């Protein structure tokens, strides 16, 4: 090959490399622009019928899941789902997101074997989840599973009524993540795990027979409050604290047989226990 031809090939290779670099830069710009659009998205739901499966994923800022009547800024009408054997999965990543969700069993179906799986990663998000029955038949064997990962200022509130329902909450890392749960009925269970974070809180209120609450906390300055009342049989609260300056408060009242189990490891932890018949 001649020297002139060799130089021409090198010029062609340089031009190809420059075009490839321009294409890569253009794709990177397009990718950034697409990610930037994930702001203030909304999902509106009003679903009736058994055996529904709904999966929602939102990644960004200021996203919303709520009801059909919630059009407009600031409206918080919950997304409502009626029926048995319903499975709802919601994943929100980012800051300032909101979830308003209700599983309503109506008047006759019984509301059995439904589940909600909610995962939140980010800051300053608000979620409200309810499982209840507006008719004469209680909800039963329903499950709510909540995961808060590295959240700052994220709050979740839960309302459950009925029999043999289960709430599980995991708070990992982050700070000022808050869970508030109000559970009424018979043979209901609440389990909360807090690990690796600071100033996270869990507040559980249970009423009815055979109520069980279990909280495990690892970290600093976390707080746990359990209140059990109104039952005539078998209320149990179990708390395990590992770390420093954590606080636990337990109040059990009613004619039930009350049991409290507490394990503490660390310095400056505080326990308050009140049992009344």
Structural summary, described in words:
With 277 residues, the protein is mainly beta. The protein is built from 1 helix and 20 strands. The protein has 2 domains: 1-37; 41-276, no CATH class. Helix content is 12%, strand content 56%. The strands form 2 sheets. Strands 1, 3, 4, 6, 8, 10, 12, 14, 16, 18 and 20 form an 11-stranded parallel sheet that branches. The chain has a 9-stranded parallel sheet with strand order 2-5-7-9-11-13-15-17-19, with no helix packed on it.
Key features?
277 residues; mainly beta; 2 domains; 11-stranded parallel beta sheet; 9-stranded parallel beta sheet; 1 helix; 12% helix
Summed up, what is this model?
The protein has 1 helix and 20 strands. The chain has one helix at residues 3-36; strands at 42-48, 53-61, 64-67, 79-82, 87-95, 98-104, 115-123, 126-132, 143-152, 155-163, 166-172, 178-186, 189-198, 201-207, 212-220, 223-229, 235-244, 247-253, 258-265, 270-276.
Mean pLDDT: 80
Question: Helicity, in percent?
Answer: 10-25%
Give Rg in angstroms.
25 Å
Number of helices: 1
Proportion in β-strands? over 45%
The end-to-end distance, rounded to whole angstroms, is 101 Å
Order of helical and strand elements: HEEEEEEEEEEEEEEEEEEEE
Low-confidence stretches: 10-37
Quick one: biggest sheet? 11 strands, parallel
Coarse morphology? flat
Give me the count of strands.
20
The helix-and-strand class reads mainly beta
Number of domains: 2
């Amino acid at each position: 090959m001649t020297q002139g031809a060799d130089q021409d090939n090198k010029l062609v290779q340089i031009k190809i490399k420059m075009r490839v670099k321009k294409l890569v830069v253009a794709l990177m710009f397009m990718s950034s622009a697409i990610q930037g659009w994930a702001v203030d998205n909304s999902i509106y739901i009003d679903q009736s019928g058994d055996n529904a499966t709904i999966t929602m994923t939102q990644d960004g800022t200021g996203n919303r899941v709520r009801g059909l009547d919630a059009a407009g800024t600031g409206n918080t009408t919950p997304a409502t789902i009626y029926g048995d054997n319903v499975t709802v999965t919601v994943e929100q990543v980012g800051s300032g997101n909101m979830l308003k969700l209700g599983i309503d069993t109506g008047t006759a179906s019984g509301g059995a074997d439904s589940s909600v799986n909610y995962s939140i990663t980010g800051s300053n998000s608000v979620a409200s989840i309810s499982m209840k029955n507006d008719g004469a038949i209680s909800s039963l064997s329903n499950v709510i599973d909540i995961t808060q990962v590295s959240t700052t200022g994220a709050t979740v509130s839960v309302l459950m009524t009925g029999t043999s329902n289960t709430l599980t909450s995991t708070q990992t890392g982050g700070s000022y993540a808050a869970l508030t749960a109000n559970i009424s009925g018979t043979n209901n269970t609440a389990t909360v795990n807090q690990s690796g974070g600071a100033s996270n809180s869990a507040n559980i209120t249970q009423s009815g027979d055979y109520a069980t609450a279990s909280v495990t906390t690892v970290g600093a300055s976390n707080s746990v409050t359990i209140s059990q009342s109104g039952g005539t049989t078998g209320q149990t609260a179990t708390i395990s604290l590992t770390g420093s300056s954590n606080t636990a408060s337990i109040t059990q009242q009613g004619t039930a047989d009350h049991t409290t189990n507490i394990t503490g490891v660390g310095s400056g932890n505080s326990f308050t226990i009140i049992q009344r018949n």
